[in-house]
């Protein structure tokens, strides 16, 4: 295993695994017990308490979320840096050149003039030990360069974070609950000989044609003292005390089609807890938000590179099965975030999985804005009442104002408690102001301009709703232009 893009074995292989496992059971072999014994016997010989490093590409570029075969391009047709693997040679570069840094040249070739196929073909022809000179444009619009080997050694850990459910999305606290099946996969070629020795003890031959599969409890695993990667969520607020499953699995895939045999280790656990998000509600209730899960690998080594397998990310993340009541799911994305572990001097990465949601704003239009508009229309109806009927006009306008205040108290539980104003807040504030206009206009007309009252009323009948609509439209457009997380249907850019 030497590349990030290597696909996981097909479901057919898993079918063979279980058939083989069942065949062992028929022959009364405790194949996993024998494997456990062989691991303990060879522990020191193969240094099984130490990590195994593999050759990986040193630099990765972002792919288009809608077409994983294509690179994401800037407006100048340049590439975007996705990640630099945290090998011994590269760790200092991680924070200097964060994800989404614009890549202008690779080995003096301008990427804007190269197709995706040209870039892939050219990079594939380079030897692993050759250097890549990467020229970038940073956030300050400065041109910088750095060099890396085409490939370098790191401990790669593939993560599958299957989000089973998301609930209790708390807008005011930017938090949500989630139930996740977390799988972490890593490799160790030292197991090849151990599995063959176990096979020889059972069948008298080291030749293995079918895949192996064994499952171990945490207690069994700890007794074997094997090197282990522990994945934690850096944005996990609290974890449920409910009993959750936790186990380790070892898969052995024999060589096929001239490929090398390899052993894949999987740690599988269930995580149920409350997570912290980073919500921006300026466009509320026309906002889109991202549910995030930040994966960090705790290990005795800092040369860890976590990654998702892109071609099966949608299948393994559980995205297709997720359902929401107040939100519409749009898509998912991932990102690398530089992260400094207090135990190490150099930076590593947090691998973030994001699920993009759009708020179902129709509820707020029908249940909040529409009733407010009806209250305002009733308040403005006093412009049609005879100006001499002071008591009647004041009664209508003041009752409507009180009704509006009472209604906003009722809907307050549906609004996020924030230190800044949202579209909803500004809309309600403007509605308060325009609901008081009939009261002040009535008092003014009755006391100062009763003779000219009918003409003034005609002006207010047209001007008041018109100015209200224009004011609200300005707030709407200004707020939407001031934030990026707006529902797609209302995006003005």
Task: Name the features.
Pdz3 Domain; Methane Monooxygenase Hydroxylase, Chain G, domain 1; alpha+beta; elongated; 6-stranded antiparallel beta sheet; 3 domains; 10 helices; Acetylcholine Binding Protein, Chain: A; 32% helix; 8-stranded mixed beta sheet; 493 residues
CATH architecture of the largest domain: Distorted Sandwich
Helix tally? 10
Q: What does the radius of gyration come to?
A: 31 Å
| Tertiary shape | elongated
Mean pLDDT: 85
CATH homologous superfamily grouping of the largest domain: Neurotransmitter-gated ion-channel ligand-binding domain
CATH topology grouping of the largest domain: Acetylcholine Binding Protein, Chain: A
The top-level CATH class of the largest domain is Mainly Beta
Sheet-strand content, in percent, reads 25-35%
Number of domains: 3
Class per helix and strand makeup = alpha+beta
Largest sheet, strands/sense/barrel: 8 strands, mixed
Which blocks of ≥5 consecutive residues have pLDDT under 50? Answer: 5-16, 20-27
Number of strands: 20
What is the first-to-last residue Cα distance?
44 Å
What does this structure look like?
- With 493 residues, the protein is of the alpha+beta class.
- The chain has three domains: 11-54 and 153-359, Neurotransmitter-gated ion-channel ligand-binding domain (Acetylcholine Binding Protein, Chain: A, Distorted Sandwich), CATH 2.70.170; 59-149, Pdz3 Domain (Roll), CATH 2.30.42.10; 364-490, Methane Monooxygenase Hydroxylase, Chain G, domain 1 (Up-down Bundle).
- 32% of the residues lie in helices and 30% in strands.
- The chain has helices at residues 11-26, 31-41, 116-125, 191-203, 218-224, 313-316, 362-380, 390-411, 423-448, 453-481; strands at 54-57, 59-61, 63-64, 67-71, 79-84, 102-106, 109-110, 131-137, 143-149, 151-170, 175-187, 212-216, 230-233, 236-239, 246-253, 262-276, 288-298, 304-307, 327-339, 348-359.
- Helix 2 (31-41) packs across helix 4 (191-203), helix 7 (362-380) packs parallel to helix 9 (423-448) and helix 8 (390-411) packs antiparallel against helix 9.
- The chain is elongated, with a radius of gyration of 31 Å.
